[in-house]
Structure to design on (656 residues):
């Protein structure tokens, strides 16, 4: 019996903490593997922003869809893609969720209706609108949650997609993870109107701005927003968050002050919830330690799985360009 | 068997597709209430309603991307873009998403989307409505690129394009919409993988597609009057290319001339020419020739526009230079 069992109302919060810890420890291990060159390419870390991915995906039904960005390890794990499949993908193995074809930025999983992993800023938004259009035309009461950053708000595809979703009353939940920087460009240096909710209002899309460093606040807002979206057309969630690491592994972080980063780390969503649970008597230090051990074991199992994984034969290079491509004798 | 215009043939294909499969819907700018900017979809809104003949805002990226998403979500969308020049506003969605999802996802996802658009010159529409950029799209793995040049292909290519589980782009040349041809009542689906010999001949192979098929056939007729037998091959599919049909013809004629309304530099004509040279060099009695559009943005004045695009006289002159 865990401590949380004695506090049934807290069990779900312990689950949220575990989900955030899984993402954090997974990515910390990925950084080590990056330094060891087992992972290459771009690696965009969610560290600091875990409450957004966890809070929103918790509010979704299994049949709902997720469209994410190149910073999507957290969303994939929170959505239920296994650590093994994601880590194997980062290592470019055929056992990876995208067979090593996608890498960190292009995680896809048809089983959880996880439609990428889009590395063109704003490029996923029209696709999310289309997924919702298909659901509407087919009479399916499903929601498509579309994640993007504050940088995407400057792209034309944001405005075109908000307009189209609102015009056609499509069930898209637009989830803007506003971490205040589009790579190295601060929001205030890129937006004539930095209040993103105002932009949503221009398309008559109802919006909420939420503390994205508080998973409980995110989940509560997402629960409301998902149900409102399912039957009432698009909604907009601004999740005010912060990434503790650079944009990618190559980012020297010249555009932010150490003081600013440290101040945001004071609001780290993981210790914030862990402390609250401890104070409530729902998760003592022993239970917290056991949780961390279990998460660490899951991460190490994923690393072992990835490293034992195999490389797709080069002969299969042209498979999956189109149906039947790369298969001898098939039309191309 | 009835004579119909190319426009009517496309409309019939759309109507049949909408009537046959509930997953099919048409969307684009002014496809509904206006009837299509080239009147291709006239009457379809009244017949199928606004859910299935869906007018969109001027948002090429969003509605093409929405077509991709709807295709991922189980529908069979047909997206109309007014002209190939406007499709550049949706290039991100077509090249970065539609063409990549199957591959990036390791084969889990696919995009059964059809995008139709007008291409080409001949209507004095200037430098932002008249270009032939289909060769650019033919550069991209993951896309199937079609260019119907006849009434039968204009009708018959849509159904198999919708059956294709991957994205298909259909380029309809604007100067062909009014052209009439016979449309057999029992026409089956067109084979999207093969080029077609539109006229047989033994002295020269003219390789063309789309809007330059009529000029190539006119040139072949003139050359016949001079005792030169020109074989005219309509590629129909620009990606993949059916080089077997082209190479078999070159093996008989020993001379090849590529006629393409695209610009010469880095073009589809360059690709066809290179493949003939790579794969049939020893069959050739002369270097592969090309007739392409002049390398200028399309001018408005009629005499200048006429001077840009390939015409029969230019094809005949080029054929003579090959010694045919």
């Amino acid at each position: 019996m865990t401590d949380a069992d004695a506090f049934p109302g807290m069990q779900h919060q312990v689950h949220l903490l575990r989900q955030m810890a899984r993402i954090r420890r997974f990515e910390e291990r990925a950084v080590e593997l990056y330094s060891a060159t087992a992972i290459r390419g771009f690696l965009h870390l969610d560290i600091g922003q875990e409450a957004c991915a966890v809070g929103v995906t918790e509010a979704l039904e299994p049949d709902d869809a997720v469209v994410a960005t190149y910073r999507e390890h957290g969303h994939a794990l929170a959505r239920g893609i296994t650590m093994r499949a994601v880590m194997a993908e980062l290592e470019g193995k055929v056992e990876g969720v995208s067979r090593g074809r996608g890498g960190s930025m292009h995680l896809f999983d048809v089983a959880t209706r996880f439609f990428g992993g889009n590395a063109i800023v704003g490029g996923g938004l029209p696709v999310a609108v289309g997924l919702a259009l298909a659901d509407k035309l087919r009479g399916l009461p499903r929601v498509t949650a579309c994640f993007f950053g504050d940088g995407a708000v400057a792209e034309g595809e944001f405005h075109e997609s908000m307009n189209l979703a609102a015009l056609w009353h499509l069930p898209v939940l637009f989830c803007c993870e506003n971490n205040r920087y589009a790579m190295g460009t601060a929001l205030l240096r890129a937006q004539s109107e930095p209040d993103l909710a105002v932009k949503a209002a221009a398309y008559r899309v109802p919006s909420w701005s939420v503390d994205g460093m508080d998973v409980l606040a995110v989940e509560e807002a997402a629960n409301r927003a998902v149900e409102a979206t399912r039957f009432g057309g698009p909604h907009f969630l601004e999740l005010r968050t912060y990434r503790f690491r650079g944009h990618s592994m190559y980012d020297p972080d010249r555009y932010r002050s150490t003081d600013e980063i440290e101040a945001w780390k004071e609001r780290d969503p993981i210790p914030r919830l862990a402390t609250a649970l401890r104070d409530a008597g729902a998760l003592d230090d022993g239970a917290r330690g056991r949780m961390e051990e279990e998460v660490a074991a899951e991460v190490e199992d994923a690393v072992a799985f990835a490293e034992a994984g195999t490389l797709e034969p080069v002969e299969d290079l042209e498979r999956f360009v189109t149906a039947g491509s790369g298969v001898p004798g098939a039309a191309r | 068997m009835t004579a119909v215009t190319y426009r009517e043939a496309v409309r019939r294909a759309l109507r049949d597709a909408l009537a046959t499969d509930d997953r099919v819907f048409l969307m684009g700018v002014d496809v509904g209430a206006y009837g299509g900017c080239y009147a291709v979809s006239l009457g379809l809104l009244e017949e199928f309603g606004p859910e299935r003949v869906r007018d969109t805002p001027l948002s090429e990226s969003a509605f093409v991307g929405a077509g991709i998403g709807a295709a991922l979500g189980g529908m069979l969308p047909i997206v109309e873009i007014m002209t190939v020049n406007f499709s550049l506003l949706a290039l991100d969605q077509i090249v970065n998403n539609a063409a990549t999802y199957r591959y990036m996802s390791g084969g889990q996802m696919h995009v059964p989307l059809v995008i139709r658009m007008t291409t080409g010159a001949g209507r004095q529409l200037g430098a932002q409505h008249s270009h032939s950029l289909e060769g650019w799209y033919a550069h991209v793995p993951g896309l199937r690129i079609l260019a119907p040049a006849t009434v039968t292909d204009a009708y018959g290519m849509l159904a198999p394009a919708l059956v294709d589980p991957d994205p298909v782009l259909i380029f309809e040349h604007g100067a062909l919409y009014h052209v009439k041809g016979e449309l057999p009542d029992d026409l089956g689906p067109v084979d999207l993988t093969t080029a077609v010999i539109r006229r047989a001949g033994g002295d020269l192979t003219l390789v063309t597609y789309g809007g330059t098929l009529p000029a190539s056939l006119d040139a072949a007729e003139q050359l016949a009057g001079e005792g030169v037998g020109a074989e005219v091959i309509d590629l129909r599919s620009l990606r993949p290319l059916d080089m077997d049909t082209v190479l078999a013809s070159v093996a008989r004629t020993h001379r090849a001339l590529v006629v393409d309304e695209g610009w010469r530099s880095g073009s589809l004509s360059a690709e066809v020419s290179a493949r003939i040279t790579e794969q049939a060099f020893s069959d050739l009695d002369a270097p592969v020739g090309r007739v392409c559009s002049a390398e200028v943005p399309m001018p408005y004045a009629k005499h200048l526009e006429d001077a840009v695009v390939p015409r029969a006289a230019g094809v005949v002159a080029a054929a003579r230079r090959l010694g045919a």
User: Anything to note?
Assistant: Chain B has a mean pLDDT of 97. The interface with chain A takes residues 25, 51, 56-57, 59, 61-75, 77, 92-93, 96-97, 101-110, 141-142, 144, 164-166, 193, 240 of chain B (CB under 8 Å).
